[in-house]
Specification:
The chain is of the alpha/beta class. It contains 17 helices and 8 strands. The protein has an 8-stranded mixed sheet with strand order 1-4-3-2-5-6-8-7, with helices on both faces.
Length: about 400
């Protein structure tokens, strides 16, 4: 794949297809996000240095992200940054809605035509969707993940195109970078691990689910999420991309799958969209579902403990301005303790970094030396570094061989 195409979204039959004007508006929204990240965000660093100096002169040390926020939130430059970030986010979703409404009849036909093909599709119209999903429009996506219509798929189609724009193409052509990055990590670090049954919790539209079927073609792969609109779209998308993967409307806190029925349980940015009460239940469910010797891998964003207060403050803006209420709180939870409490042996639990697959792909295609991709894969990550900086934080634990 040419480097120039890495940041273009790959087409498939159930992807909303913008016309010329819609595409221009969407490209502008994506470019605006990129401009904010490249040209506006760096300006917060000298502003913070000046603010911290002023505060210190008054006898105040800014020792937490909350103290930094209180000192920074009244600064006009920060207010402009926050407003631009929020505006660009809302612009992304609304630009995609135009496409979705115009392209609806075609999409409905494409999705419906694939319902009886591929792997299993299990919907639960009576599911009680958790309040942490229904209470607000997560990351400002209109309607959030729950469209309220288990037979629909609008939330899935909106997410498919919108999240590509949000990530500025760093999710890769198929928005699957998180799953592909973890698969690369497994391939390098667990070369003898050959799971026969794999579960992806909180799969949304199956972006990160499909790479596991590619890496382990003989495995039975399941993706689950709490809303029917997401898993219905995920199923149609998998069929359109020629993957035989199963999808079900289930809650990761209590899936209903039988005990010890999976070799590998994964998630990709699920944890920061749940809640403090849900996370221990999800870890407990992972332990229950895994066969002895099986692995749990959660890919998300790194905890705050190794970051300075300013870095925490910058990252925590998602909590305040992007409808991500658990974004900051999740980073303060002791996930290692949650894994221990769920039953995973302490010596099997660790945090590590899975280098971004898209960064490796870029290195391979830019004419760098032959070892460029491996250099990307093997470099050391700094505390606080986060996607699209180069890697995904992964929490890994293994169920004891003799456990039940």
């Amino acid at each position: 794949m040419a480097v120039g195409n890495i940041f273009q979204q790959a087409d498939h039959p159930v992807l909303p297809r913008p016309n010329h004007d819609e595409s221009s508006r969407q490209d502008f929204a994506k470019s605006l996000r990129g401009y904010i990240q490249r040209a506006v965000l760096p300006g917060l660093t000298p502003l913070f240095a000046k603010t911290a100096k002023e505060q210190k002169a008054q006898g105040v040390d800014l020792q937490s992200r909350h103290e930094v926020r209180r000192a920074m939130k009244s600064k006009p430059y920060f207010q402009a940054y926050a407003a631009m970030t929020r505006g660009a986010q809302e612009m992304i979703w609304h630009s995609v809605i135009d496409t979705l409404e115009r392209d609806w009849d075609r999409l409905e036909g494409e999705v419906s035509a694939r319902e009886d093909d591929g792997g299993a599709l299990k919907l639960d119209p009576g599911m009680d969707v958790p309040r942490y999903v229904t209470a607000l429009d997560i990351h400002c996506m209109p309607g959030g993940y729950d469209s309220g219509d288990a037979a629909g798929f609008a939330a899935g189609a909106l997410y498919e195109r919108g999240v590509y724009l949000y990530s500025m193409g760093f999710g890769g052509p198929f928005n699957d970078d998180k799953g592909r990055s973890v698969c690369n990590y497994i391939r390098r670090n667990l070369p003898d691990f050959k799971p026969k049954r794999i579960l992806d919790m909180g799969c949304t539209v199956g972006h990160s689910t499909l790479p596991y079927k590619e890496l382990f073609p003989d495995a039975e792969v399941w993706g689950i999420d709490v809303t029917g609109a997401l898993v219905r779209y995920a199923h149609a998308r998998a069929v359109a991309l020629n993957h035989d993967v199963n999808f079900a409307q289930m809650n990761a806190e209590d899936t209903g799958f039988e005990d010890e029925s999976f070799d590998l349980v994964v998630s990709h940015i699920l944890l920061h969209e749940t809640s403090g009460k849900a996370m221990p239940r999800i870890f407990n469910e992972c332990h229950r579902l895994l066969k002895p010797g099986g692995y749990m891998i959660h890919a998300d964003l790194p905890p705050f403990d190794l970051m300075d207060p300013f870095t925490q403050f910058v990252l925590d803006n998602e909590t305040y301005y992007n409808n991500e209420p658990f974004w900051g709180a999740m980073r303060e939870m002791d996930q290692v303790k949650l894994a221990k409490d769920a039953g995973f042996p302490a010596d099997t639990i660790s945090f590590d970094t899975a280098p971004m697959a898209i960064r490796e792909q870029m290195a391979k295609g830019t004419g760098y030396d032959a070892d460029a991709a491996e250099k990307v894969a093997n470099r050391k990550f700094r505390a606080g570094e986060y996607a699209p900086g180069g890697g995904w934080e992964v929490l890994i634990a293994r169920k004891a061989e003799g456990a039940s």
